[in-house]
Specification:
The protein has 4 helices and 14 strands. The protein is α+β, with helices and mostly antiparallel strands. It has 2 domains: 12-148, Sandwich (Immunoglobulin-like); 173-280, OmpA-like domain (60s Ribosomal Protein L30, Chain: A). The strands form 3 sheets. A 5-stranded antiparallel β-sheet has the order 1-10-9-6-7, with no helix packed on it. A 5-stranded antiparallel β-sheet has the order 2-3-4-5-8. A 4-stranded mixed β-sheet has the order 11-14-12-13.
Length: 281
């Protein structure tokens, strides 16, 4: 996925239910509102300011049956990353104030991760989890409360031109392990990218293809090429007529748009298996 980075400017108030700890991590700045990055651990609340800005890894405490968040990463310009633990192979839903905003399927270890382009307006949100699995049926999980304050509009000046922030890049298109098939959220990301390119109609769109760290350099480079070809065919079939520049990267560029210390290994590797938009003009 695009390397997402955001400037300070939004006032963020984070509160956790179920007596959990939250850690807010600021990403690099590119002239946009600050992103909310919450890494959640099932430990008592910490009182000090220093604790709230800690970047220490959060250990996984899942026993395979819990339904919890590990990461909540929200870009006020649009887009979010959620990750956590659930019963194995469960269908997981992320709810915002009771409304479903994203879904995923947990793997055999219970790990799940979601990347979505959905934009959340300023306001108060309670993100909660629900899941359904053949073994355990319906399960209700952890909830996290987040308040996103609106970003003040820049004051216009006739003497000094105002800089225009570049538009955010779409969510990465993710793939199944050792495969060229989209994940459920990867297919939605491909549909969103196709819609965006059709609306903006750029002459050239550059895409990069990636694989996770497992396998040889040669094999992963070829797998990246095949994934790029699948996305290119999907975009052509969706009506994009511009030039496509396809750039295979193999396993050389892991996904770094969020703090990987807050993710289980399989969650991080899922985000590495991707195709993403580099530029469109």
């Amino acid at each position: 996925m695009q390397r997402v980075a955001f400037a300070t400017g939004a006032v963020l108030v984070l509160a956790m239910t179920f007596a959990v700890r939250q850690t807010v991590v600021n990403l690099a700045h590119i002239g946009a509102p600050e992103a909310i990055v919450t890494r959640v651990a099932k430990t008592p609340l910490l009182a000090s300011k220093e604790s709230l800005t800690s970047t220490r890894p959060v250990p996984s405490t899942s026993d395979g049956s819990s339904l919890t968040f590990d990461v909540v990463n929200i870009d006020p310009r649009g887009g979010a990353v959620f990750a956590g633990q659930a019963p194995e192979n469960a269908n997981v839903s992320v709810l915002a104030n009771g409304q479903e905003v994203a879904t995923a399927t947990a793997d055999e270890t219970g790990a799940w991760a979601i990347v979505t382009d959905r934009k959340l307006a300023a306001g108060a949100y309670e993100f909660s989890l629900s899941a359904r699995s053949p073994q355990r049926g319906a399960t209700a999980g952890q909830s996290v409360r987040v308040v996103i304050a609106p970003t003040p509009s820049p004051i216009a000046s006739s003497a000094t031109p105002q800089a225009v922030s570049p538009p955010s890049l779409p969510a990465p298109i993710t793939f199944l392990y050792n495969d060229t098939s989209f994940t459920e959220q990867g297919r939605r990301a491909a549909e969103l990218l196709a819609k965006r390119l059709k609306e903006q109609r750029p002459a050239i769109a550059s895409l990069s293809g990636h694989a996770d760290e497992r396998g040889s350099d040669l094999y992963n480079m070829e797998l990246s090429r095949r994934r790029l070809s699948v996305v290119a065919d999907f975009l052509r079939g969706s009506g994009f007529v511009g030039k496509l520049e396809l750039i295979p990267k193999g396993k050389s560029e892991p996904y770094t748009a969020i703090d990987r210390n807050g993710l289980a290994r399989e969650e991080a590797l899922q985000l590495d298996r991707r195709v993403e938009l580099v530029s469109a003009h």
